[in-house]
Amino acid sequence: MIEARPSAWAERIFDFYLTRLFKRRFSALYLLGDFPRIDPTLPLLLLPNHSSWWDGFFIHLLNKKKFLRRPYLMMLEEQLKRHLFFTRVGVFSINPNSAASTRTSLRYAARLLQNSRNLVCIFPQGELAPWEKRPLAYKRGLDLILKLHGARANLLALAMRIDFLGEQLPAAFFMFGENQITAHAEFEGIARLEHQEEDLLEQLRAAIARGERGTRLL
């Protein structure tokens, strides 16, 4: 697997690049609903849906605007090999075609959770999928990460959607679920987490349809 090698200089460059990129490609970015209460003494495991090429960039922005943690994000190894700069902003790889490599990546994610200041983002779907696809078909890696971590963590669902609203450029919308503080022994299971994310995605869709705009992030 390819490990993350975060650096301050790379993050400054990336922040500048992303701000310009978002302003060119989106009409606005909105956070809908309430921002959840996060235990600052525990690591954060962020679990978004994965339906666009922009998703990893969105996570970086949300961390800068809301969480202010050291971010780490899991990416498919074949993609990360083409964009190795991303390792300098906290991206690490997973290769689902190799069982041994997958276990190494999951152990690495669990090790990152030992630092209470870290935010670790994984996409439980394991691949890009159309926004409307149901069920979400979560993979089981999250269960093993929690088992290997062996302690409590913030577990936070995130719904993301890109939509056109009468503008030439699309808008991006985000909505967080309720934060769950849990350890593996208390974890209610992948299936329940998947259903909760599907409900959150529907809440986000309905809020956009009602014309809600919430907080403008950029």
General description of the model:
The chain is of the alpha/beta class and 218 residues long. The chain has one domain: Glycerol-3-phosphate (1)-acyltransferase, CATH 3.40.1130. Helix content is 36%, strand content 22%. Strands 1, 2, 3, 4, 5, 6, 7, 8 and 9 form a nine-stranded mixed β-sheet that branches. Strand 6 and strand 7 form a beta hairpin. It starts with 7 loop residues before the first helix and ends with a strand.
Strand-residue proportion: 15-25%
Main sheet? 9 strands, mixed
Counting DSSP E segments of at least 2 residues, the number of strands comes to 9
| CATH architecture grouping | 3-Layer(aba) Sandwich
Residue stretches low in confidence (pLDDT < 50, at least 5 long) are none
On the 0-100 scale, what is the average pLDDT? 95
CATH domain class: Alpha Beta
**CATH homologous superfamily annotation:** Glycerol-3-phosphate (1)-acyltransferase
Q: What is the molecular shape?
A: globular
Number of domains: 1
Count of separate DSSP helical elements = 6
Helix content: 25-40%
CATH topology tier name: Glycerol-3-phosphate (1)-acyltransferase
Q: First CA to last CA: what distance?
A: 34 Å
H and E order = HEEHEHEHEHEEEHE
Q: Supply Rg.
A: 17 Å
What is the oligomer described by this structure? single chain
Helix/sheet category: alpha/beta
Short description:
The protein is α/β, with parallel strands linked by helices and 218 residues long. The chain contains 6 helices and 9 strands, in the order H-E-E-H-E-H-E-H-E-H-E-E-E-H-E. It has one domain (8-216): Glycerol-3-phosphate (1)-acyltransferase (3-Layer(aba) Sandwich), CATH 3.40.1130.10.
